[in-house]
Amino acid sequence: MTFFRSRWVDPPPGVQELDAAELAPGFRAGGVACGLRGDGATDLALLACDADHVASAMVLTSNAAAGAPVRVCRERCDLTSLAGAVVNSGNANAATGEVGYHDALAMRDAAAAALDLEPPRVAIAQTGVIGFPLDLDAVRNGITAAAGRLSPRGAGELADAILTTDRGRKACTVRADGVTISAQAKGAGMMQPNFATLLCFVQTDGRVDDPQAELRPGVADSFERITVDGQQSTNDAVLLQASGAAERPLPAGLLDAVLLQLALEVVADGEGASRIARVEAREAADEAEAEAVARAIANSPLVKASLYGRDPNWGRIAQATGMALAGEDLGELGGDAIDASGLGSGEPEADIVIRLGRGDASAQVYFSDLTPDYVKLNSEYTT
After folding, report:
1. What percent of the chain has pLDDT over 90?
2. What is the predicted pLDDT for the residue at 216?
3. Is residue 189 predicted with pLDDT exceeding 70?
4. Which band of pLDDT confidence, cut at 50, 70 and 90, is reported for residue 229?
5. Is the pLDDT of residue 333 over 90?
6. Domains in the chain and their CATH numbers?
7. pLDDT-derived band of residue 152, with 50, 70 and 90 as boundaries?
8. Cis amide leading into 194 (omega within 30)
9. What is the 3-state secondary structure of the chain?
């Protein structure tokens, strides 16, 4: 299946799509089942870069109740030179207090020893159920086993190790102008910018002089523009690692295209989702106003239900817009200002446009529909 399959993604010309099991040259990964998930699925992985010098950047959740792995990365890792990472699913290690913090630190340190790296050069990421203590013995055993499985073809195991309620892998390996990018992501629920409940790992042999400047705009236009249920996670993390071995800069637009396609796959895999949509608020007074309107529409359960039922009910869009700008005077928002035809279409990707007539600013947000399966899954998540 073609990776760049959304009509909203515009990859640079000449992109070659490779086997998604292959990591970018110079990177290795390995994953194992260590018992955290309880269903025998792969739930822990290591990622390593063999280059002497690695340029990296990491974007982490802004949730005030951030999980232990996020706090360890913020406080105890060198986010500019991360050569390795350890990740698990099945347990978010969030809302676990100081014990959870020390467990995350011990997990990071065990991975560093297994990868023969200084601890600050190893990132940690965790995802799963919140509020449960981590089985540190199982994690340590898993790290030892994963270190023995490190392989340039380990991207699939890494992609599997981060899944929770996802219906399948989200991964790619692409090449353009002599530069390769491989990436693996997860996310399906508890999803709202800033940003989705997701983990994303991106590796490249391209030369990246300022990784934060490369990663931050791409995340802002992708993962921070998606929503499934309006709920912000405690554990979100996006990691970019660049070895520079290709001795070429990243081709313009390649990283952005990869991040946006992965973000759209997260939305399309939203818990119970059957369709996705892009809402664009135009003619706003400023970008903040446009974003507020777009988010209000995207998070409206009424609009999301209309998307599910293919009901082009533009009155719900008008209501959500007025709610977002409560206190302002929009006058009567008639159907001539709203194009909701995408809601009623048979397409898997729908477009919604609202014109506010207040200025020149615009913003867009991608969202999924609301289905009975979302309620079923989240009412039985721990039982």
Report:
1. 84
2. 97
3. no
4. confident
5. no
6. 16-268 (3.60.70.12), 276-379 (3.10.20.340)
7. very high
8. yes
9. CCCCCCCCCCCCCCCEECCCCCCCCCEEEEEECCCCCCCCCCCEEEEEECCCCCEEEEEECCCCCCCHHHHHHHHHCCCCCCCEEEEECCECCCCCHHHHHHHHHHHHHHHHHHHCCCHHHEEEEECCECCCCCCHHHHHHHHHHHHCCCECCCHHHHHHHCCCCCCCCEEEEEEECCEEEEEEEECCCCCCCCCCCCEEEEEECCECCCHHHHHHHHHHCCHHHEECCCCCCCCCEEEEEECCCCCCECCCCHHHHHHHHHHHHHHHCCCCCCCEEEEEEEEECCHHHHHHHHHHHHHCHHHHHHHHHCCCCHHHHHHHHHHHCCCCCCCCCCHHHEECHHHHCCCCEEEEEEECCCCCEEEEEEEECCCHHHHHHHHCCCC
Q: Are 105 and 72 in contact (CB under 8 A)?
A: yes
Q: Is this model's pTM higher than 0.90 or not?
A: yes
Mean pLDDT calculated for residue range 322-329? 93
Answer yes or no: is pLDDT of 194 > 60: no
pLDDT category, 234, cuts 50, 70, 90?
A: confident
Q: Is the peptide bond before 4 cis (omega within 30 degrees of 0)?
A: no
Query: Catalytic residue among 165, 180, 197, 234, which?
Result: 197
Q: Specify whether 197 is catalytic.
A: yes
Residue 144's alpha-carbon distances to 26, 30, 204, 284, in angstroms, are: 21, 11, 25, 54
